[in-house]
Amino acid sequence: MPSENELVQALRRRVGVLVQAAATARSARDRWVFAAEEEHERRLAAIEARHVRAMGEAQTAYEGILLRLGGEVAAATDAEGLLVADWGHPAWGAWGPRRHAPSPPPVRVGDVIEEGKWNRITLAALLPLAGGQSVLFEPVGAAKDQATQVVQSLLLRLLAAIPPGKLRFTFIDPIGLGQNVDAFMRLADYDEALVTGKAWTEPQHIEQRLADLTEHMENVIQKYLRNQYETIEEYNDQAGEIAEPYRVLAVFDFPANFSETAARRLLSIAQNGPRCGVIPIVLADPSQKMPYGFDLADLERVSTVNHRHGHH
Questions:
Q1: Could you tell me which residues come within 8 angstroms of residue 58 by beta carbon, excluding any fewer than 6 positions away?
Q2: How many C-beta neighbours within 10 Å does residue 216 have?
Q3: What is the pTM of this model?
């Protein structure tokens, strides 16, 4: 039987072996971790290099696309002329009345701005009016003044786009009392029919003007469209000229001074007017109480809606 001393020596030898094995394991682990970290860093560097290279190639391609897009936009603007040009464009100095325009082309109502990581793209926001939908603005707060200016700009562009004598305005301005369209009232000096006499403000007059437009639409449907043409533009294209002047109905501050009857007529005009050459442009105040039985959502469904928000 081994002595106590021999047992202690044997135990020490085993402990030494274990300590040496642990040290060897730690060394192997450290070498593996170091190698793994080096491989990880190498792969990260390779990935980063590929990312930088790919981003550079993407930016170069993007800038090439922007360059081509800019040329295409400029060419399209030149082709459409002043109808899509900014109001500051020098070509406005050479403007003259259009002699031939079977149907109103798309008209600029502002800009579409796309903010990108590397660039900012600005395109003309075009609104197709011929055979399209009515236009509904629903400004909120301080944006009302801006929306009013947009409507005025739209009206002026239509006046510039459509040949003389082929456009009639009906203005309804119950709160502004005509101030929102005072610049257009000078047309009455040449022909009162161009602006139906005045800007209308009183409930009974508003009803009557909408009734007149409804009757005009009935005449267009029965005289020109019948069952043969879907829109007045189709008839005009076939006839080679504008058969009837286009009617633009510009309404400010709806539903102020609108009776139930007037509101229903406005909805009917918005639904059926564009195909008959009647173009409703309505600036509404959604915060106001609507006439009994009238739902603004019904007007929205048949309109191109523009929501503008401002600060109080």
A1: none
A2: 20
A3: 0.72
